[in-house]
Putative membrane protein insertion efficiency factor (Methylocystis bryophila), 109 residues
Amino acid sequence: MKRLAPLPARLPALAARGLILVYRLTFSAFAGRWCRHAPSCSAYADEAIARHGLWAGGWMSLGRICRCRPGGTSGFDPPPEQTPKGADALHPWRYGQWRGPLRCEAVQD
Protein backbone atom coordinates (compact mmCIF):
# COMPACT_ATOMS: atom_id res chain seq x y z
CA MET A 1 0.00 0.00 0.00
CA LYS A 2 1.32 3.41 -0.96
CA ARG A 3 1.92 5.80 1.93
CA LEU A 4 0.77 9.37 1.57
CA ALA A 5 3.13 12.25 2.20
CA PRO A 6 2.41 14.45 5.22
CA LEU A 7 -0.27 17.09 4.68
CA PRO A 8 2.10 20.10 4.41
CA ALA A 9 3.93 18.37 1.56
CA ARG A 10 0.64 17.65 -0.25
CA LEU A 11 -0.80 21.18 0.10
CA PRO A 12 0.54 22.56 -3.22
CA ALA A 13 -0.88 19.61 -5.15
CA LEU A 14 -4.21 19.89 -3.31
CA ALA A 15 -4.34 23.63 -4.08
CA ALA A 16 -3.66 22.97 -7.78
CA ARG A 17 -6.37 20.30 -7.87
CA GLY A 18 -8.73 22.77 -6.17
CA LEU A 19 -8.03 25.35 -8.88
CA ILE A 20 -8.71 22.74 -11.54
CA LEU A 21 -12.04 21.95 -9.87
CA VAL A 22 -12.95 25.66 -9.77
CA TYR A 23 -12.09 25.91 -13.49
CA ARG A 24 -14.21 22.86 -14.31
CA LEU A 25 -17.21 24.24 -12.40
CA THR A 26 -17.00 27.81 -13.69
CA PHE A 27 -15.24 28.73 -16.93
CA SER A 28 -15.30 25.28 -18.52
CA ALA A 29 -19.03 24.91 -17.84
CA PHE A 30 -19.78 28.21 -19.60
CA ALA A 31 -17.25 28.00 -22.44
CA GLY A 32 -18.30 24.51 -23.43
CA ARG A 33 -16.40 21.25 -23.49
CA TRP A 34 -14.44 21.02 -26.71
CA CYS A 35 -11.47 18.88 -25.74
CA ARG A 36 -9.98 16.73 -28.51
CA HIS A 37 -8.98 14.00 -26.06
CA ALA A 38 -10.64 11.65 -23.62
CA PRO A 39 -10.36 12.29 -20.72
CA SER A 40 -10.57 16.07 -21.02
CA CYS A 41 -7.46 18.16 -20.40
CA SER A 42 -8.67 19.26 -16.96
CA ALA A 43 -9.49 15.68 -15.95
CA TYR A 44 -6.06 14.61 -17.25
CA ALA A 45 -4.35 17.32 -15.20
CA ASP A 46 -6.30 16.43 -12.06
CA GLU A 47 -5.44 12.73 -12.38
CA ALA A 48 -1.79 13.35 -13.30
CA ILE A 49 -1.27 15.65 -10.30
CA ALA A 50 -3.07 13.21 -7.99
CA ARG A 51 -0.96 10.30 -9.24
CA HIS A 52 2.49 11.91 -9.70
CA GLY A 53 2.46 15.09 -7.62
CA LEU A 54 2.43 18.74 -8.65
CA TRP A 55 5.86 18.90 -10.32
CA ALA A 56 5.65 15.81 -12.54
CA GLY A 57 1.88 15.96 -13.03
CA GLY A 58 2.03 19.65 -13.87
CA TRP A 59 4.63 19.09 -16.60
CA MET A 60 2.63 16.15 -17.99
CA SER A 61 -0.46 18.36 -18.05
CA LEU A 62 1.36 21.20 -19.80
CA GLY A 63 2.54 18.75 -22.46
CA ARG A 64 -1.02 17.54 -22.92
CA ILE A 65 -2.35 21.09 -23.28
CA CYS A 66 0.32 21.76 -25.93
CA ARG A 67 -0.91 18.71 -27.88
CA CYS A 68 -4.56 19.80 -27.64
CA ARG A 69 -4.59 22.25 -30.53
CA PRO A 70 -5.58 22.28 -34.19
CA GLY A 71 -3.29 19.85 -35.97
CA GLY A 72 -2.36 18.22 -32.66
CA THR A 73 -3.26 14.82 -31.33
CA SER A 74 -6.71 13.53 -30.47
CA GLY A 75 -8.26 10.38 -29.06
CA PHE A 76 -7.96 8.39 -25.85
CA ASP A 77 -4.96 9.65 -23.87
CA PRO A 78 -4.93 8.84 -20.13
CA PRO A 79 -2.12 9.98 -17.83
CA PRO A 80 0.74 7.45 -17.65
CA GLU A 81 0.84 5.03 -14.74
CA GLN A 82 4.55 5.69 -14.16
CA THR A 83 6.76 8.68 -14.83
CA PRO A 84 8.72 8.50 -18.10
CA LYS A 85 12.29 7.24 -18.01
CA GLY A 86 14.88 9.98 -17.77
CA ALA A 87 12.46 12.51 -16.27
CA ASP A 88 13.61 14.20 -13.08
CA ALA A 89 13.67 17.63 -11.45
CA LEU A 90 16.60 18.75 -13.63
CA HIS A 91 14.91 17.58 -16.86
CA PRO A 92 11.24 18.48 -16.36
CA TRP A 93 10.46 18.63 -20.09
CA ARG A 94 10.91 14.85 -20.19
CA TYR A 95 7.75 14.37 -18.12
CA GLY A 96 5.44 15.53 -20.90
CA GLN A 97 4.80 14.32 -24.39
CA TRP A 98 4.89 17.55 -26.36
CA ARG A 99 3.68 16.38 -29.76
CA GLY A 100 2.09 13.34 -31.36
CA PRO A 101 1.52 10.63 -32.20
CA LEU A 102 0.23 9.34 -28.90
CA ARG A 103 2.25 6.69 -27.11
CA CYS A 104 0.68 3.28 -27.34
CA GLU A 105 1.28 1.40 -24.11
CA ALA A 106 1.05 -2.36 -24.53
CA VAL A 107 -1.65 -3.97 -22.45
CA GLN A 108 -0.21 -6.87 -20.52
CA ASP A 109 -2.47 -9.74 -19.50
